[in-house]
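Notebook entry, structure prediction.
Reason for the run: the old model in the group folder had no record of what sequence produced it. Starting over properly, with the input documented here first.
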Amino acid sequence: MKKQVFLISAFFFLSSSLFSQGIEGSFTYSKFMGPDGPFIETCLAINGESIAYTDAGEGKIQGLVEVTLLCKQNDSIKFVDKYDLASPLLAAEDSIKPSFIDQQRIVLPMGVYDLELSLSDKNILAPVTSKVLSYHDVVVFDFPKDSLFFSDIQLVESFSKTSSPSAATKSGLDVVPFASDFYPTSIENLIYYAEIYQADKSIGPEEEFLITYAIESHYSDMAMERYKKFQKQSAAAVNVAFNQFSINELPSGNYNLCIEARTRDNELVAIKKRFFQRSNPTLEIQLGDLEELSLKNTFVEKYTSVDELAIHISSLSPISTAKERLYATNQLAIADVDLMQKYFLRFWSRRDALTPEKAWLDYKAQVAKVDKEYKIPIRKGYETDRGRVYLQYGQPNSVTSSDQEPSSYPYEIWHYYKVGNYSNVKFIFYNPNLVTNDYELLHSTVIGEPYDPAWHYKLHKRDTQLNDINTKTSPWHYGSRSQENWDSPR
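New structure, fully documented this time:
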């Protein structure tokens, strides 16, 4: 079966995109609740420049990608669809091959599923064989029966009023997802869509409640002052949270889009977040009224050395917002003591208005601790991966270390019971140079951190030839306990 696709005006492929050899593109999905039960809405984006084209007649050419979507529970297949995805018809002389997307909906009962996607280019024929590219994730449907809950937040490429219902239709709108979490300078608006279920049961039928929208720093959970909105709605079985922010002046960095449901008394009922990245390198960063700050009788008066202030401000990087980090890098290079003091005071006053010095001293003690544990000859402790993660997320609940496994580099697995809104969080660091104490962050389950499903291959590259670093399952290695330690950290 051949399926039609949507053209998209622009698409940007990151180093973290799912497919890195042959076919290039990205895949995302969002979980919703519909009349027939829970479903996932998928969005597959294909880079038109990365596929082969054949003659389609009448001076036209066309690409063709074979797509297989599969959902399993244990060894039982609950959904499978295999189809041919055709690119738009192009004139044979066209030099630009536009990107295109495909949307699907998969209805599934409540439960936990393995989601698998595989792609191959059908226009690459023998003796040259198209490489089959695959993606794997775990989908969990655990929606509550009676309390208010959110769908996933879907980032939106475009939308229009529905004229004829389709797989893109929700709440009277045809919504085309934005198939990435990366927003370059050329994109001016962050458009988003989510649904709120069972507000009538949780808050009361037709009771007024508040939906708040905010963009916050991914690292500090601090809401950006300019990026806050709210709207009032009457509680229903399904409420729609559909809005947008202008991001022309949003600095480069990692962010969360945060949507909250609150009662009329401002009591938080539920919250949902979606990670995204912004690139805006030409934006001039300003922190506003630093000049008007008074330093009199504040704790920063005693810091009068440019070098000392520079070190202190540099150590703040792991807990700084993107805006603060850019300002510190680009503006404080002028080495103006007064400006550095005011920046330092503003930083800590925003985090603890009552006792900013205590907040700084508590953090300074943690900086000293990671410097003692993780510093290397060319970098301070807070500049290493382990030091940065420790300062940003706190002390892990457990650390599993290994430097004796015959086939692997020395490694550490850090386990957190909870980080922000995420539970059962893990990081794996490894030491491929074997000389210094500089362990690199190899893989993590935290959104926005390095994610590499093939981490086990790189860990065991010490004595293993990697013919396909993208292969999903790890080979067996003599004496290795890395997978066991990852699955059951101690």
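Summary: The chain has eight helices and 26 strands.
The old model has been moved to the deprecated folder.
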